[in-house]
Amino acid sequence: MTVQQLETTVAPRHVAIIMDGNGRWAQGRGLPRLAGHHAGTGNIKRIVREAIALGIPYLTIYAFSTENWKRPSWEVRGLMRIMAEYLDRELRELHAEGVRLHLLGTLDGVDSALAKKIQNAITLTANNTALTLSVAFNYGGRADIVNAVREIVAKGINPEDISDEMIAGHLYTSGIPDPDLIVRTSGEQRLSNFLIWQAAYSEYYMTPLLWPDFGPDQFREAVSNFGNRERRYGGRIGEGEMVK
Ligand code: IPE
Ligand code: IPE
Ligand code: MG
To answer: Which of 63, 142, 189, 203 has the smallest C-beta neighbourhood within 10 Å, fewest atoms?
Structure first.
């Protein structure tokens, strides 16, 4: 195990958000659930801008889980349509702002027109450097690990050569630092199969606000709250040094 540096009052390098509560937001307004998903996707831009303004290089958003396929087909279809419309509407601006899009998950089972839009967006933004926006779409933490194990086994790697780093290098997040801070809106206190490997030492910030109501000020508040956390990684604070 490598020794990690203690961080006390630092900005997170990677913030990951479980964007939850769109349905309840709509219900509270007497609107259909899809109106909530529409409002939720509309909120992404504000948070991306705030992350760039705060100098956070990696932002990850949980958009659709492997379990979300269990929802009624009208809702799944609606979510896919909203995702496609979102790319049509917002991609140009995201690109202009220097956002590099990255997919966590697979496009297996995703409608081919939408899959093509997503692939095009990734290719278009591949060289951008302001912020890496990873979109967990058709993503599950367990599926992520299963996929990594399959790749490792397919390469015929010796069991004794398997390490933390090797597994991490086969996850969808390969090359992206582990999330420092995981934010979940809507008051739920669970991971729901999000980044279960990567979140081993993440800090958590749960807020009762519903995702469409979680704006830049609230994001800033979450980041500032993170700055006061003391991360120990199982060690303890020494005299300016991490004790193993
Ligand atoms: C989050 O909002 C978006 C997705 C899971 C796709 P929900 O649809 O889960 O909203 P609630 O939790 O029902 O309010
Ligand atoms: C998690 O939210 C998935 C996304 C935000 C995309 P859910 O609403 O699906 O999670 P559960 O069902 O409440 O655990
Ligand atoms: Mg939910």
So the answer is: 189
Q: Which residue's alpha carbon is nearest to atom 3 within ligand 1? A: 20
| CB 47 near ligand 1, within 6 Å | no
Does the pLDDT of residue 1 top 50, yes or no? no
Q: Are 25 and 212 in contact (CB under 8 A)?
A: yes
pTM given for the model: 0.94
- Please report how the helices 216-227 and 33-53 are oriented relative to each other, as an axis angle in degrees rounded to 10: 50
27-46 confidence digits (pLDDT tens): 999 999 999 999 999 999 99
Q: What is the CATH number of domain 3-243?
A: 3.40.1180.10
Rounded to the nearest integer, the mean pLDDT of the chain is 94
φ/ψ region of 194 (left if φ > 0, alpha if ψ in -120 to 50, else beta) reads beta
